[in-house]
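Lab manual, section 2.4: Encoding a predicted structure.

Procedure: take the sequence of the chain (145 residues), apply the prediction step described in section 2.3, and record the output as structure tokens. A sample record is shown.
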Amino acid sequence: MPGLPASGPTGTRNARPSPAPGVRRSVEGRVSAVTAPVAARLFRIVAVAEACSWAGLLIGMFFKYVATGSDGVGNEIGVTVFGPIHGALFVAYLVVTLLAARVLRWSLPTTMLALAASIPPLATLWFERRARSRGQLSEPAPSAR
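Recorded output:
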């Protein structure tokens, strides 16, 4: 076309521009906005937040069902507050776990263990410490092509 350069910055028409700083290109050539350090940090934050919301929900359930007043009715405010918060963080943990598993190249057993850790109270803390101590929350080794 008139007025357009005949070739891109690398001398070929089909050359892909380099991604922005902090953005990486996958092996397949797709651009991924989430780098390994970002995925690991996000996983750590959500895992701790999910465990804290579990603790809040358990405390709320204690006051609702165990520490009842003289009339036999418990205080529901803890469950009312922490129920939706925990629900949202639970779903966020599942999504972030799948994202981290892909970006950090976790094995299927590790991914399944991370997902299973979302169910027992405070198990996400255990898994986060386990993954960090085993180096599973750091930059994965480059894959051989």
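Check your result against the sample. The chain has four helices and two strands.
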